[in-house]
Amino acid sequence: MANTTKKKREPKWVKALTEYIPLGLFLLAYKLGDLTLAIQAIVVSTVVAVIISYVAVRRLPLMTMLAAGLVLAFGGVSLLMGDDTIYKMKPTVLYSLFAIALLVARAFGRLLLRSILEDLWKLTDEGWRKLTTQFAVFFFVMAALNELAWRFVGQDFWVSFKVFGGIGLMLAFIASRASFAKRHALPDPKAKGEPPAA
């Protein structure tokens, strides 16, 4: 008997609640106060969001837990030491960990990216392996851009980059992979056995 059990997925609102809403509150707090207030806002809102999400669905995606953990770790240390620059390194560490995790898993024959993007694309194993490498390079580039933004450009620019740049560049990168995904797509099973067009 074929296994028709589908992998259980978290509701879409979980990602919005745990990632986008705290990020929006971070930006609002920064505009109304300063970076310290913004860090306080994202730490508190992340804790509340994770608790609400876990109570509602009883499980959270690994990436969500990793991102939330880094917010709490870097945000907490930054607030305790009174040094906002510590929190500015958080995106660098997060992007680097994403890249390393993808490459290490790929080396052991596991394609983490497929479990994340399989609803968007249906690719061959070779396609997922190549795409994994491309995403790893993208995350390393994002880590480097974050370092450049907070070390050599103004704080206002870094805040805008953190809130809008990460999401915008990620969406642009995914869109740029559309033609690649088409070239490495799995054959359409519906097309098999159909007579050729007259």
List keywords for this structure.
198 residues
Describe this structure as you would to a colleague:
There is one protein chain. The protein has 198 residues and is mainly alpha-helical. It has 2 domains: 10-81; 89-186, no CATH class. 75% of the residues lie in helices and 0% in strands. The chain has 9 helices and no strands. It has helices at residues 12-32, 35-57, 62-81, 84-88, 90-107, 112-117, 125-152, 155-176, 178-183. It is globular. The relative contact order is 0.09.
**Count of alpha/pi helices:** 9
Order of helices and strands: HHHHHHHHH
- Please compute the radius of gyration using only Cα atoms: 20 Å
pLDDT average, as an integer? Answer: 84
What share of residues are in beta strands?
Answer: under 5%
As an assembly, this protein is single chain
User: Given the C-alpha coordinates, what overall shape results?
Assistant: globular
Helix content: over 70%
Distance from N terminus to C terminus (CA atoms, Å) equals 38 Å
In the predicted model, the low-confidence regions spanning at least 5 consecutive residues are 1-7
Number of strands: 0
Largest sheet: none
Number of domains: 2
Q: In terms of structural class, how would the helical and strand content be classed?
A: mainly alpha
